[in-house]
Amino acid sequence: MRHNNNTMANTYTQIYMHIVFAVSRREALISDDWVDELYKYLAGACQNRKHFVHAIGGTADHVHLLIGMHPAESVASLVKELKGQSTRWINEKFLHGDFSWQTGYGAFSYSRSLVPTVQTYIQNQREHHRRVTFQEEMADIFRKAGIDYNPEYMMRGFAD
């Protein structure tokens, strides 16, 4: 991925991030009636910040994004903006003040060779969660990423 603009001439990066965040209290508030609009909204918000969206998916209580990151923005800044903007949008358009995301998020980097695998994984979230809970999913992602965690506290970063 080549990013070349006035402030970053001749800068070449390849930064693929898998980002996960959940609805507050893990409530199943993301409706099938407007989930596609939410994904389009999140994709547009990413693109407006010069990130490339490879995949967006999830279930009624959480979302996954696979993004080719532009190097001018940190993951923390991007997630803060995505969560803030989408919360306002969801509350104005669908849930009238009853929606919020949980604090915290997961962000995991992948090599280019794994992008197709992660894309497929994200696009098949509904099927995946017929067999696996969110906690089991995150434990597996942490394990594969080599992240040490205490199962008793592993979701604390996703808690209110």
What does this structure look like?
The chain is an alpha+beta fold and 160 residues long. The chain contains five helices and six strands; from the N terminus they run E-E-E-H-E-E-H-E-H-H-H. The chain has one domain: Transposase IS200-like (Alpha-Beta Plaits, 2-Layer Sandwich). Strands 4-5-3-6 form a four-stranded antiparallel sheet, sandwiched between helices. Helix 1 runs antiparallel to helix 2. The longest helix has 21 residues. The mean pLDDT is 90.
Concise account of the structure shown:
With 160 residues, this protein is of the alpha+beta class.
What is the name of the CATH superfamily?
Transposase IS200-like
Number of H/I helices:
5
Termini separation (Å)?
Answer: 36 Å
Q: Mind telling me the CATH class?
A: Alpha Beta
Quick tags:
160 residues; alpha+beta; Alpha-Beta Plaits; 4-stranded antiparallel beta sheet; two-stranded antiparallel ribbon; 5 helices; 38% helix; 19% strand; globular
Indicate the topology.
Layout: E1 2-3, E2 11-12, E3 16-22, H1 35-48, E4 52-59, E5 62-68, H2 75-95, E6 106-110, H3 115-123, H4 125-128, H5 134-145
Antiparallel strand pairs: 1-2, 3-5, 3-6, 4-5
Helix pairs in contact: 1-2
